[in-house]
Design goal:
With about 240 residues, the chain is of the alpha/beta class. The chain has a single domain (about 5-235), classed as Spore Coat Polysaccharide Biosynthesis Protein SpsA, Chain A, CATH 3.90.550.10. It has six helices and 13 strands. It has helices at about 40-50, 60-70, 90-95, 120-130, 200-205, 225-235; strands at about 5-10, 30-35, 35, 55-60, 75-80, 105-110, 115, 135-145, 155-160, 165, 175-185, 210-215, 220. A seven-stranded mixed beta sheet has the order 5-4-1-6-11-8-12, sandwiched between helices. Strands 2-3 form a two-stranded antiparallel sheet. Helix 3 (about 90-95) packs across helix 5. It is globular, with a radius of gyration of 17 Å.
Length: about 240
């Protein structure tokens, strides 16, 4: 079994357009759900799994995020990957941050989702399934039927070995990506630091048979819109 990586990336630089008006006065990671910011929830998931160093990328209202981290961080060392000059999207943001990430493989987590651990924690689940000989990327998935607050038609199909393939146009796929993944730095070999989505690297890994998934055993909430915040709060309130 692969140990839980000591380092992780938190993707926190987005503009949060889909979450307006909440993000008119604060960055998306500092939106609160049931009294706790999304950023603190993401950090809590990582710390609970054994991560001790996180790299957080910043762009929109970057000073607010940095001040929050300086005031509240505990149990984890934080490094900042500064994208004030240019928003690099998910793939470019991780690529720029690679020199700051002290683990290979490493974890990457979005700051607009909520994970509630099941019998096996999300971080331990990813580490336990990781196989460097077979994988360049391992995505934490949830069945579409259990994708709380999510409105999409699904993202991926998964075969019996865990290999992922894309949803076909006009069809529904049975699994949704939860915003949490384990990645090999090998996936970024030769990749330039420029704005691009992780979809580009996932598609390349899938074409080579090196994109895998594992199913989350707990609850998951897609909190990417203002409406989803209220919905998630109502669901979390009955737990």
């Amino acid at each position: 079994m692969t140990p839980v990586p000591a380092s992780a990336m938190v993707l926190a630089a987005g503009l949060g357009r889909r979450m307006r008006p909440l993000t008119a006065t604060r960055p998306k990671p500092l939106v609160e759900v049931a009294g706790r910011t999304l950023l603190d929830r993401a950090l809590g998931t990582l710390v609970a799994g054994g991560v001790r160093h996180v790299v957080v990328n910043v762009h929109y209202m970057a000073d607010r995020i940095e001040a929050h981290l300086n005031a509240r961080r505990s149990g984890v060392e934080v490094s900042i990957s500064d994208e004030r000059d240019l928003l690099l999207e998910t793939g470019g943001g991780i690529t720029r941050a690679l020199p700051l990430i002290g683990a290979d493989p490493f974890l990457s987590i979005n700051a607009d989702n909520i994970w509630v651990d099941g019998p096996v924690g999300a971080t331990e689940l990813l580490a336990g399934r990781w196989n460097a000989a077979e994988m360049d990327a391992l995505l934490l998935m949830v069945p579409l039927a259990r994708a709380n607050c999510h409105r999409g038609p699904g993202d991926f199909h998964m075969d019996a070995m865990g290999r992922l393939s894309r949803r076909r146009p006009g069809r529904v796929a049975p699994f949704v990506y939860t915003g949490f993944q384990m990645l090999s730095k090998r996936l970024f070999d030769g990749v330039a630091v420029e704005p691009f989505s992780m979809n580009r690297l996932w598609d390349r890994a899938a074409a080579e048979g090196r994109l895998y998934g594992v199913v989350h055993q707990g609850l998951w909430f897609d909190v990417g819109t203002a409406a989803a915040v209220k919905e998630a709060e109502a669901l979390l309130g009955v737990l």
